[in-house]
């Protein structure tokens, strides 16, 4: 029989407990419940934002990306490409040339990111589904076409329906500048706009996709490439293929999965989540101070009970445990309500999108949320630690109480 637990339970549910102690205990439970629910909701929002970032990038980024460890580009040849294609788990290999260039259309101009890709780029099942106007085919009837971001289209008033108005790209030549012929410092090529895509503003306002042959001629890259994009074959783990490619290519190249291509952004989200957890843990600590006050008052109220228990043979450890368990009951019940409330609100947001993000976005209208078991575990652990911190002093005071002075 667990005597300290039975006595603590009796104290907690006793109707004869003084009203002020009951009020403080209830306030403590409400504070813990609200703090716990808020922590679960906020952590779930951060989880949802992390998944949203991955979703946005998945439609744009490859499973694996090979780039130079140093410098902007690297040389390729048939043997180099064959080594990549022969690696187990590699399904598709797309060559990429990407750099900034000046884009002119009619009397308007802006700097854009030109991404030249080989013909199998859209076989990687990515932005083809995001085309909102025209066609994503960059090669048709022996002609080259460009796929333009919606933001670029709006900025330059590009019309895909007009086949006689060309987009003109200008890229600086790697030659000495001649002030007598300033236009000779730039390579200029024209291409027809064939389609418009809309993924996310970061991409829509900057990117234009063109055939790799067009980019190669515009930037005079020859066999140099800025990246090789890999689609992993079904049934293979991305990390396994990544290690194999890294071994084949050596330390002169970086092989990155989707998360590693955006390490800084995802790390920033995780750091923010950590600081939010720490902040809310302190808020829970402040809310739990009511447990300290209610236990201190309960110790004063139960002086005679403590003296009687001690005279009947109860040890100091058993008396201390009574009040530790009393604090744990307050925190446990409050945390249980808080976890349930947090889970309910997160599920309602996930299902009905109650709270809007309040800004125009092509991806989601409401705040994304995602519940993770680890958040519940960490929140529970934080509550246990906080409860022990605020309960230990009143419990020790009760155990140290004199029997003779209180009988």
TrEMBL record:
Keyword set includes Membrane: yes
Q: Which residues form the signal peptide?
A: none
Q: Which residue numbers delimit the ABC3 transporter permease C-terminal domain? A: 278-402
How is this protein positioned relative to the membrane? Multi-pass membrane protein
Q: Name one Pfam family in it.
A: MacB_PCD
**Record InterPro entries:** ABC3_permease_C, Lipoprotein-release_system, MacB_PCD
Report the locations given in the UniProt record: Cell membrane
Top-level lineage group: Bacteria
Q: Which residues form the MacB-like periplasmic core domain?
A: 27-247
Q: Which UniProt keywords apply?
A: Cell membrane, Lipoprotein, Membrane, Transmembrane, Transmembrane helix
What residue intervals traverse the membrane?
A: 20-46, 274-300, 321-346, 373-392
CC terms in the record's Gene Ontology section: plasma membrane protein complex
Coiled coil location: none
What GO biological process terms are annotated to this protein in UniProt?
Answer: lipoprotein localization to outer membrane
UniProt similarity note:
Belongs to the ABC-4 integral membrane protein family. LolC/E subfamily.
Designated name of the protein:
Lipoprotein-releasing system permease protein
Which organism is this entry from?
Answer: Pontibacter lucknowensis
